[in-house]
TrEMBL record, chain A:
InterPro entries: Epimerase_deHydtase (IPR001509), Lipid_A_modif_metabolic_enz (IPR050177), NAD(P)-bd_dom_sf (IPR036291)
Protein name as annotated: NAD-dependent epimerase/dehydratase family protein
Residue intervals of the NAD-dependent epimerase/dehydratase domain: 5-216
From TrEMBL, chain B:
Record field: compositional bias (Low complexity): 1-12, 34-46, 56-74
GO function term, MF aspect, one: acyltransferase activity
Coiled coil: none
Domain Phospholipid/glycerol acyltransferase, residue spans: 178-295
Compositionally biased intervals (Basic and acidic residues): 77-89
SUPFAM superfamilies on file: Glycerol-3-phosphate (1)-acyltransferase
One Pfam short name: Acyltransferase
Keyword terms of this UniProt record: Acyltransferase, Transferase
The keyword Transmembrane helix belongs to this UniProt entry's keyword annotation: no
SMART domains: PlsC
Name by which UniProt lists this protein: Acyltransferase family protein
InterPro entries: Plipid/glycerol_acylTrfase (IPR002123)
Amino acid sequence: MGRVALVTGVSRDLGRRFARLLAATEGIDRVIGVDVVPPRGDIGAMSFIRADIRTPVIAKVIAKEDVDTVVHMSVIATPGSAGGRGTMKELNVIGTMQLLAACQQARSVQHLVVKSTSTVYGASSRDPAMFTEDMQPRRNPRSGYSKDAAEIEGYVRGFARRRPDVRVLMLRLANVVGPHVVSPMASYFRLPVVPTVLGFDARMQFVHESDLDRVLTHGVLSDVDGTFNIAGDGILMLSQALRRLQRATLPLPGFAVGQLGSVLRQMRLADFSPEQLSFLTFGRGIDTTRMRTELGFEPDYTTAEAFADFASSMPSSSRISERAVAGLADLLPDSAHEPDPAGAPRG
Amino acid sequence: MADAEIIPIGTRGRPGRGSGQARPSSAARGLAGKPAATKAATPRRTSTTRRPHVSAAPEEVVEQTTTEAVPPATAEEEVRPPTTTRDRGPLAGISPEAWLSMLQSAAQEVWGEQWEPQLAQLLALLRRRLTGDYEVDEFGFDPEITEKLTLALLRPIAEKWFRVEVRGVENIPAEGGALIVSNHSGTVPVDALMTMVAVHDHTGRFLRLLGADLVFRMPFVGEMARRGGATLACNEDAERMLGRGDLVGVWPEGFKGIGKPFAQRYKLQRFGRGGFVSAALRTGVPIVPLSVVGAEEIYPLVGNLPSLARLLGVPYVPITPFFPWLGPLGMVPLPSKWLLEFGEPIRTDELDGAAADDPMLVFNVTDQVRETIQQTLYDLLVKRESVWH
């Protein structure tokens, strides 16, 4: 039996790449990409339908194409790309509601895979070190992307209750990084001088973009339902990540980082939402035990490897301090020079 | 006698030796060999070009003088005295080999005979830190910086200032998870840091601290705490750490213990809600009671500013006999003598995990731990001869 998958949010790079990959996957007959604007770039075997998921048109698409798998990737994190916070919220929340309403109507739909985010856990000083899937955020998000994500998850849970015959898989992904990723975190790391919150060091986890494709494909093909945290192994501290990038940092008090963030947002350089600021302050860790035991997924990249791959796509900077130390070490007589695995450049 | 009383001290503003005479004494004049150097007796007041011809060690002179270079006359080459201003130019007279040997002897002084590998190791460490090429665990614990920097800085304080004496180290398991439960005191949680040093130096294991959320809300403190292996005192984190087989330290009295008035010293406060016991029961690790004597006296808390504390969002603003009266000096802890006694472990592995959901059992174990610590405190106080030694 061939399967027909509908993927939302294919105009963006990650969505397009995943939909193309899914179309080439064995066991999937047809992949329909849906978005308000056509994707730019190679769409492979995917067929694109220009439809707005905020309108009931989406129900007709699902019914007509006899879709049995819906992959919802159209949750956007940046108001900038959508044209303002209002549009972003509408796309995220109203879009999800319409999509789920359409899925509930369509008897053909058997699988729903939602790409959510670990932002739903928030970031605060009261957080446990690692969030497991059944933990709640210590403070309920009040605004922005994390509130959208929390509301979307609420609607998805409601849908799962009303359609118990549909397998609902929700994936809470840590920050996705990679050479092609455009996200608030990626643009933050691409700043020439990176502002950090003075006196705080955030714990971070990353997922490589290829692991995102793999886990979504795995989620479509497997028969597991539930909510899962997805992240690469290990933790990178923000300071450590910036040292690996050899990027100049600008430590500022928290409120100043927020103000600088709004200036940067106006300049369209980076996006500093309040929840990103709290993430940069306190960081977050998610527990991925169930990803291995129940979902049966193993990421290719650890957090550090994913970040190294991301870093290698960026122009490397001068690394003056590192070169000075290395030069000093070279001055030492050879007998004292121990093999130094740390010497390998990190991009 | 009357004459002796009016002998002036100093020169009364006139130049010359301390004889009170305007002219230099004949002895002073005799020191100056040539007429050109008659001002030899007052070198500090003359310009640097007219310095006396002191034939000191050439290296020292070079280090101290900043004189401008005097163009030497080639005709004087043969007749010039052994040391001239010419040799006092910056860095003149020291060959690169001399510099190298100086650096080598300095390095040998610091690191001993094996200085080359030591220096190479230090540079490798520096390079690892600069490139971010080190590992932290999921709690943000950075073992390298903790061992090489934090503990190394705290160790002299523990050994020299508080002269921490540790008893019952054999009660700390050499491996596997264990929960060290201690009394809390001293206005500032110095006792947690000293326990960390003591445990690491006696067992070689890192003590992972459980801290209040205030710790992680404060800038710098929270960052340092995570780097040093601390995490939030919540059941999830405690069980996660204990389940991994870490040695975890907890101070269940919290701010009630650390911020209690000096008059209530060594009186244990309420032990929270017994969350630490249920964490130990769920993970089946032993509870090691620890009694700390001496920490109460480092900052005797004689007063509190509750309204200012509310304003700042902290549990208390301490007033000690020296703080805030002496400013930063008042922040120096008093050098009391510390005694740390680790008690016999209370085993929990015989009880199954379901026991953690039995509140009565949890309360009983909590009381048992509390009583053990309180009794040991009293015993240690009786044995202690003085607060200071």
